[in-house]
Amino acid sequence: MSASATVNASYLENLLAGQPHLPASPLAWLNALRAEAVDRVGALTVPTLRDEEWRFTDISMLTKMSFHPVRTTISLQVADIERFYIEEATTRLVFVDGVYAPQLSSAATDHGISVLNLEAGFAAHAAAIEPYLGRLTEFHNNVFAALNTAFLHDTALIVVPRDISVKVPVHLLFIATQKDVVSYPRCLILAESGSAVTVIEDYVSLQEDAYFTNAVTEIALVDNARVNHIRVQREGAKAFHIANCAVSVARASNYQSVSVAFGARISRYNLNVKLAEGAECAVDGLALISGRQLADTHTCIDHAKPQAISNQMHKCIVGGSAHAVFNGKVMVRQDAQRTDSKQSNRNLLLTSKAHVDTKPQLEIFADDVKCTHGATIGQLDDEEVFYLQSRGLSDTAARNMLTYAFGAEIIERIPISSLKYQLEQTVLEQTSAQL
Q: Which segments of 52-178 are extended strands (E)?
């Protein structure tokens, strides 16, 4: 075995430490799933720049740091975290370093809607969740998804029954409190036929030392369901954040997603959406980074059946010596006639040292389709700056306003007023600091 392979194996073994001591599940298939994931971790390696899907994203810094699964949890009070609460969300699940915190949560089973930790949902929902949990996110060739699945225990579970529309958003809050810890947040959202729900998946930190969040989210929409998924990553400045999200959108269903990334030293978000006949999705994203941050977003929208519609807008605002990556693939399979797909990636560089790598992709195997894509990289328009200056604004104020407006276009698509206000303030503060 080469020296690099030995280091890789040792690193993964360290991340797996503690996995054999997880409590056994009452479900035999879940125990088998975990065991299979452990085997896959042993067969896989941490990706490097030599891997095509990672050629712009150097995570070697991650492998040089020692992280261990949480050993003891820190006891938090509501007063410690209430600043992260979202006014409209009366139902909330809180996880501290990946461990469910019932004392901080407000789980619900009102009107048949289940919002609870997986362990509490076994009895009522085992049969419903088995086809989806650990099945939507492919982990056989993804070492980070395999690691998360190996530790599958505490999981945010949302089950919305047939024809039930949830009027208020559900908040899934993941809080990092300890340095040198790796956590494995997990979410499963099941929207049954004709149902509708809005879910906020929120990652925050109470400390600024290095830690590692390795998250997996699986979302299944049955026929005619609607899910509005807002994902906010505002981790600590030294954190590492790697996440995989897989979405299955059944016939005539609608998936709306807004993903916002502000935090972490290095972050990577993989989003895979599979569309059935007549399904629709809108996938929007914003990365706002500075300093030496790296934010990578990889998306794949798979038009598997006819007459599906997808729209994607992803924006990056990059300051300092930061590096943003966007790789957006749209696949139209042979049977997916009358597909309508639009993709756009727009990137704003605030300094001469800021860097963006973008790779929009179309793979079309059908002949009756409407597909467009495009990408731009540039700085603020001098004419727009001059126009605002002619109206009395200073150069700094003009640039700040234009930068804010560039990012706020994505934030505006979030249908939750208090969260939208929080994020708009963050965009305003961070853009002001960089100009």
A: 68-69, 91-96, 99-100, 114-117, 156-160, 170-176
pLDDT digits 0-9 by tens, 91-143: 999 999 999 999 999 988 776 789 999 988 888 899 999 999 999 999 999 99
Predicted local confidence at residue 387, as pLDDT: 77
**Rounded-to-integer distance, Cα 206 and Cα 290, Å:** 20
Domain that holds residue 169: 3-276
Considering the domain boundaries, does residue 95 fall inside one? yes
Place of tokens 């790796």: 182
C-alpha 403/C-alpha 411 separation (Å) is 13
Structural domain contains residue 323: no
Domain boundary among 241, 276, 311: 276
The three state secondary structure string of 83-110 is HHCCCCCCEEEEEECCEECHHHCECECH
Measured CA to CA, the distance from residue 307 to residue 303 in angstroms comes to 9
User: How confident is the model over 262-299, as pLDDT tens digits?
Assistant: 999 999 999 999 999 999 999 999 999 999 999 999 99
> How much is the pLDDT for 5?
60
For the chain, give the mean pLDDT.
93
Residue 339: closest CA among 328, 352, 330, 348: 330
26 occurs within a structural domain: yes
For the beta carbon of residue 127, count every other beta carbon within 10 angstroms.
7
In a domain, 286, yes or no: no
User: Considering only CA atoms, which of 164, 161, 142, 245 is closest in space to residue 203?
Assistant: 245
Which burial class, exposed, middle or buried, applies to 90 when counting CB atoms under 10 A from its CB (0-12, 13-18, 19+)? middle
158 with 108: CB under 8 angstroms? no
Residue type, 211: Y
Nearest to 69 by CA among 29, 115, 19: 19
First to last CA, the chain: 50
The rounded Cα 94 to chain-centroid distance in angstroms is: 17
Show the DSSP H helices in 394-435 as ranges. 395-411, 417-434
Of the listed ranges 100-114, 206-220, 235-249, the one predicted with least confidence: 100-114
Show which of 276, 303, 319 is a domain's final residue: 276
The rounded distance, in Å, linking the Cα atoms of 412 and 422 is: 12
* Whole-number Å distance between alpha carbons of 142 and 147: 9
- Domains identified in the chain, total number: 2
Backbone phi and psi for residue 309, each to the nearest 5 degrees, phi listed first: -125, 135
Q: Are residues 387 and 272 in the same domain?
A: no
Are 267 and 392 in a shared domain?
Answer: no
Q: What is the DSSP letter of 151?
A: T
Q: How many helices (DSSP H) and strands (DSSP E) are in the chain?
A: 9, 21
